[in-house]
Specification:
Layout (H helix, E strand, L loop, with lengths): L1 E8 L7 E7 L3 E6 L6 E5 L4 E2 L8 E4 L5 E4 L2 H11 L3 H11 L1 H33 L2 H18 L2 E2 L4 H18 L6 E6 L7 E3 L4 E5 H6 L3 H16 L2 H10 L1 H8 L13 H6 L5 H17 L5 H13 L12 H16 L6
Parallel strand pairs: 9-11
Antiparallel strand pairs: 1-2, 1-7, 2-3, 3-4, 5-6, 6-7, 8-9, 10-11
The structure holds zinc ion.
C-alpha cells in the first residue's frame, strides 16, 4: 500500500483540489481532503505516469484530462517500481540524477560512433564491395569511362607497336598479381590531367600518352601498372564510393540490394579524376607494386623515379594528379625504400 498527498485538477477548470491518494497495487483511490470532492477510483492501467524529467513534481495523468500532481517523488517511484512502468524513463532519470554516469555514457556513445565510423564502416564497405557481381562492376566502369572520355580524355596518339608491347607486358603483370579480373590496358591522350594512370573497378586500366612519354623505361610504367592493378584487386574503387556514400547505401547493400551500388556509381569518375583514394589505399597499392618489383629483381628504384618525375612534371598541367601530389610523394618514396630495406637480401 502506497499513500501520498497530491493536488487534483479536473482538467476543465484551474481549480486545485488537495487530495490524498492510496494505491493498492491495482487501483488509485483519490479522495478530496476538503469535503468529498473528488472521490474517484481509477485503475492504474488507465493512468499515465509522466516521465520524471528533473523536476521535483511528478504528475499522474488520469482519464478525461484530469491529473494529480505530487511532490512525493518517492511514492511515485515506488508505484512505478510496483507496476514495472516507465522503465526506460526511470533510466533517463537515473542518468540525469547521476551526471557522472551520464557523462560516462555519453563518452561511451561517442567512442562507439567513432569506432564504427573508423573501423565498422570500412570493414562493412569492404564486405559489400566484394559482394558486387562482375556484371555490375562492368556496367559502372563503362559509364565512368564514357564520362571521363567526354571530359578529360582524347584518343591516344601512341605508336601501335608501343601500345602492343605495353599491353603484352601488362598481361603478364596483371596475371601474376591478380587472376580474378579481366584486365585490359588502354591509352588516352590527356592535355588536361597529364601523366597519369587510373584503374576502373572492372579491371580496365587507362594510361595517358603523357605518362608513357615521361617514362625512362618500361619498368617505371610497370610499377605504376602494378599499383593500379592492386587498386582493382583490393576493390579500392568500390570500397571508396561505398564508404563515402554513407550508411544508407551500406545497409541496403548488406541487406542484399546489391544493385543500389549503381546509385553511388556517379561518384566514380570524380573519385578517379581527383585522386580520391584514401592514404591507406594508396599505401596498400604501393606495397603490392613494391613487392612485385622486388620479386622481379628490379627493386623499387624505377617506381620511385617515375613518382618523383610525375610530381615535378605535374606543375605543367591543370588537373590534379592521381598518382603523385607533392607532400605525399616524399612519404611514398620513403615507404618504398623501407619496404625494400626490410626485404631479406636476394642472392
Ligand atoms: Zn593509386
Amino acid at each position: 500500500m502506497i499513500e501520498f498527498k497530491a493536488v487534483y485538477f479536473n482538467g476543465k477548470t484551474s481549480r486545485a483540489y488537495p487530495v490524498s491518494v492510496v494505491f493498492d497495487g491495482g487501483t488509485l483511490r483519490i479522495r478530496g481532503s476538503e469535503g468529498d470532492h473528488p472521490a474517484l477510483d481509477v485503475h492504474i492501467e488507465d493512468c499515465t505516469i509522466a516521465p520524471p524529467l528533473g523536476g521535483t513534481v511528478r504528475s499522474i495523468k488520469l482519464p478525461g484530462g484530469a491529473q494529480c500532481e505530487t511532490t512525493d517523488t518517492e511514492a511515485v517511484s515506488a508505484m512505478e517500481h510496483l507496476t514495472g512502468r516507465n522503465t526506460g524513463m526511470r533510466l533517463v532519470h537515473f542518468l540525469e540524477s547521476r551526471w557522472k554516469t551520464a557523462a560516462g555514457a555519453l563518452a561511451g556513445l561517442v567512442l562507439c560512433v567513432w569506432l564504427f565510423a573508423t573501423y565498422g564502416i570500412p570493414f562493412l564497405a569492404r564486405k559489400a564491395a566484394y559482394a558486387v557481381p562482375p556484371e555490375l562492376t562492368e556496367q559502372m566502369s563503362r559509364q565512368a569511362i564514357k564520362m571521363l572520355d567526354r571530359r578529360f580524355l582524347k584518343p591516344s596518339e601512341l605508336d601501335p607497336g608501343r601500345i602492343r608491347k605495353l599491353r603484352e607486358e601488362f598481361q603478364h603483370l596483371s596475371r601474376e598479381i591478380d587472376a580474378d579480373f579481366n584486365y585490359r590496358l588502354e591509352f588516352r591522350k590527356s592535355p588536361h590531367i597529364g601523366p597519369n594512370a587510373f584503374a576502373l573497378p572492372s579491371g580496365l586500366v587507362i594510361m595517358t600518352d603523357e605518362l608513357v612519354d615521361l617514362a625512362a623505361d618500361d619498368r617505371e610504367l610497370l610499377a605504376i601498372l602494378a599499383h593500379e592493378t592492386a587498386h582493382v584487386k583490393k576493390r579500392h574503387g568500390l570500397r571508396s564510393i561505398i564508404q563515402n556514400s554513407g550508411v544508407f547505401l551500406l545497409i541496403s547493400l548488406l541487406a542484399g540490394d546489391i544493385t543500389s551500388i549503381t546509385s553511388a556509381a556517379a561518384s566514380l569518375p570524380a573519385l578517379l579524376a581527383q585522386s580520391g583514394y584514401s592514404r591507406k589505399f594508396e599505401t596498400e597499392a604501393d606495397r603490392v607494386a613494391a613487392l612485385y618489383m622486388i620479386r622481379k629483381g628490379w627493386g623499387t628504384k624505377p617506381f620511385q623515379a617515375i613518382l618523383l618525375r610525375i610530381t615535378r612534371d605535374m606543375a605543367d598541367y591543370p588537373g590534379e594528379s592521381l598518382l603523385a601530389s607533392h607532400p605525399l610523394t616524399d612519404q611514398r618514396v620513403r615507404h618504398l625504400r623501407e619496404i625494400e630495406a626490410s626485404m631479406p637480401e636476394a642472392e
